[in-house]
């Protein structure tokens, strides 16, 4: 079975966080990922730290992909960032509309991610491999599932080379989504985004914001284990390993892990997979 792994980090704020991320990266590097990506904080709040983290990864000899969001960036900001990235040999971007910290709306040169993809192509031709976001369970602001896929297609038509999905725990949602994308003429690789289960409260909070569904049975089981970290971890490990196995068996081209800057659980998931 051949598939690509990638790992997503957030830029650390403190020296301890930076040291911990280095350890995490060293552990995950043993799994030979295709690339490490680094998020762009809501509203551009981490712009400098994202760049610093990305350039550090690249300097150490790994492929690093910065996330770039359009919602709080001007055309000039994008041009400046691309120049730095290009001059340091960065060749892959994850391009997003982004969210603002409080959900407020701001005037932006880029109302939708497709506008930003088009602008990056206009500025830099084919210099970058561009990944965009996709939503097997539909983006929370979308008026319909179909319209959301039409908007996803606009990003591909604007020049994106591939997509990484929002996380989900229902493999059928992914397979259905990929089938529907193909029937609408979208043929780029769509890599499932995988969120390991570290903590129920945190997962429930993320999920309510981003529209990812935690199946009822899983949510209830995880809540039972809220005071029992070892059992929660064991259940999460089993559920996410089974999800990854199903996705790969069904033809997913890779797995992109939302690491939350932690490695151990992910190493265990990959070790448990049957990937002969
Ligand atoms: P878009 O593709 O622009 O879509 C957003 C909404 O607008 C959708 O409902 C879509 O249907 C609709 N839409 C799109 N085009 C049109 C149009 N032409 N007319 C009308 N409606 C339209 N956020 C961050 O802030 N920083 C990050 O680093 C980050 N990394 C992420 C990585 C991945 C893999 C994923 C899946 C998400 C990430 N996000 C990040 C979250 C993302 O920014 C949010 O989900 C955001 O709400 C939408 O971003 P998008 O790029 O999907 O936007």
Can you describe this structure in just a few lines?
The chain has 276 residues and is α/β, with parallel strands linked by helices.
Describe this structure in words.
The protein has about 280 residues and is α/β, with parallel strands linked by helices. It has helices at about 15-30, 45-60, 75-85, 115-125, 145-155, 170-185, 200-210, 215-225, 230-250, 265-270, and strands at about 5-10, 35-40, 65-70, 90-95, 130-135, 160-165, 190-195, 255-260. The chain has an eight-stranded parallel β-barrel with strand order 1-2-3-4-5-6-7-8, surrounded by five helices. Helix 4 (about 115-125) packs parallel to helix 5 (about 145-155). The longest helix is centred in the C-terminal third of the chain and has 21 residues, at about 230-250. The mean pLDDT is about 95. Flavin-adenine dinucleotide binds next to strand 3, strand 4, helix 4, helix 5 and strand 6.
Map the helices and strands:
Layout lengths: L3 E6 L5 H15 L5 E4 L8 H13 L4 E6 L5 H13 L4 E5 L16 H12 L4 E6 L10 H13 L4 E6 L3 H13 L6 E5 L5 H11 L5 H9 L4 H21 L4 E5 L5 H9 L4
Parallel strand pairs: 1-2, 1-8, 2-3, 3-4, 4-5, 5-6, 6-7, 7-8
Helix pairs in contact: 3-4, 4-5, 9-10
The chain binds flavin-adenine dinucleotide.
């Amino acid at each position: 079975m051949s598939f690509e792994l990638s790992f997503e980090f957030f830029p650390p704020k403190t020296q301890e966080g930076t040291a911990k991320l280095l350890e995490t990266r060293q552990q995950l590097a043993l799994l030979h990922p295709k690339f490490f990506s680094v998020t762009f904080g809501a509203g551009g709040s981490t712009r400098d730290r994202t760049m610093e983290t990305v350039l550090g990864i690249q300097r150490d000899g790994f492929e690093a992909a910065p996330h770039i969001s359009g919602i709080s960036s001007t055309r000039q900001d994008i041009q400046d960032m691309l120049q730095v990235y290009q001059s340091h040999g960065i060749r892959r971007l994850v391009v997003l509309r982004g969210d603002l910290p409080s959900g407020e709306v701001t005037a932006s040169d880029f109302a939708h991610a497709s506008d930003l993809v088009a602008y990056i192509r206009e500025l830099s031709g084919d210099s970058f491999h561009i990944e965009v976001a996709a939503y097997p369970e539909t983006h929370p602001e979308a008026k319909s599932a179909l319209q959301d896929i039409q908007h996803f297609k606009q990003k591909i038509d604007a020049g994106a080379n591939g997509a990484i999905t929002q996380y989900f725990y229902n493999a059928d949602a992914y397979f259905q989504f990929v089938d529907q994308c193909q029937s609408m003429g979208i043929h780029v690789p769509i890599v499932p985004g995988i969120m390991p289960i570290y903590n129920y409260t945190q997962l429930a909070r993320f999920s309510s914001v981003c529209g990812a569904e935690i199946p009822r049975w899983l949510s209830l089981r995880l809540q039972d284990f809220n005071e029992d970290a070892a059992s929660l971890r064991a259940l999460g490990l089993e559920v996410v390993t089974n999800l990854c196995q199903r996705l790969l068996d069904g033809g997913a081209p890779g797995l992109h892990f939302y690491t939350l800057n932690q490695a151990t659980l992910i190493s265990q998931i990959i070790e448990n997979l049957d990937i002969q």
